[in-house]
């Protein structure tokens, strides 16, 4: 990933432009909906190389919005507002900031045509016209997936950016228009490059401890760690004159980190999924896979099918939730089920071996366990058996003890199996 960055930045030894986020909406303040906009913006701003220290949530109150803006001006160079651009009586963000800055609003002609077009066949009331307002002396952001236009203005050494509240509209507008605006307004000859490294089977704190010396002495490149999609991601960011300068810095640090964390390494890429890595590895090896699923309910097969090219590797899947299904479809021996139970290493072994034979695949993978909410066969929630049968090799059974919600146990079980096969 590469971005041009602010001409006032000195990322190696100085201060960077500061951005503050103000989310507007009484429904946010009351906790009726989650403030996902701020989470999204914070991550994007970090990727773009902006410092971001403060987020504020405020209700639909013009006077409080003015006071919060005045406070934000003391801390930030750029203020981003989300919400309050709609047609209802309490959607007053544009009008309030316009009054506060003494900067007039106008109806953007192109935007108004788009809004009117969206109301064809419906009655468009006067209050809908407010969605087409933008700063007369500012910049307009089109809304390709909604109606309310975004707008920005530079005034008294600050930049004010007003974006819609619905997350789908705000994210699309930021990705397609605001990012370019920020780069165009604050670019120079430096570039910001990032590399994303993903790890599985290690906790965020353990990973951080393993590379603590690199974190404590970081400079250029910088190191950031975050957890998501059941993996820990390390983001490396370097600044330089061009990618020929930043790429070797990133590659060198990535090599050092992966040397310490090789046992947990999944792959590299901004939005990489472990299911994508599995399909890629199996495709490269010209190997196929089949699943026998109980408590995962088809999740293992679905996540593979989500990846383009899955047809090259997935032979089939059998969801055998009950004892009868395991016996009748997968041919698990009745004596195994009676002696050891459905949730057992013995049953997982037969499920994996029999599904591999059923579908004539290179790998047969089984999942049997207790995802909750109650214990089963005397085994606690989080007890999991994952059978992995591979042609020409002894079958193994993984027995991770997992915690958390039913969904968490299901996903972690599936990803544990994926990771084991990736590492073979």
From TrEMBL:
Residues of the MoaB/Mog domain: 20-185
Name this protein carries in UniProt: Putative competence-damage inducible protein
Membership in a protein family: Belongs to the CinA family.
UniProt source species: Aerococcus viridans
Pfam families (UniProt xref): CinA (PF02464), CinA_KH (PF18146), MoCF_biosynth (PF00994)
